[in-house]
Amino acid sequence: MKRARPINADLPEGPPRAEPEPRPQPVPGPLTPWLLAALALLAVGLIVAAVLGGTGGSKETPGSTAPAPAGGAAADGGEGSPGTEATGFPGLATNNTTRIGGSDPASIAAGAALAVFPSTAPSQRPAAVTLVAEGDWAGAIAAAVLMAEPVRAPLLLAGDEGLPAPTADALAALDPAGGKATGGAAFFAIGGASPPDGANATRVAAGSAATEAAAIAGLRDRLSGPPPDRIVVAPSARPQIAMPAAAWAARSGDPVLFAGVDELPAPTATALRRHPDAPVYVLGPASAISAKVLRAIGRISPQVSRVAGADPVANAIAFARYRDGGFGWNVNDPGHGFVLARDRDPLDAAAVAALSGSGTWGPLLLTDSATKLPAELRSYFLDVKPGYTNNPTRAFYNHVWVIGDQEAIDVNQQAEVNELAELAKIGGGE
Question: Of 291, 287, 226, 276, which Cα lies nearest the Cα of 252?
Answer without folding.
Answer: 226
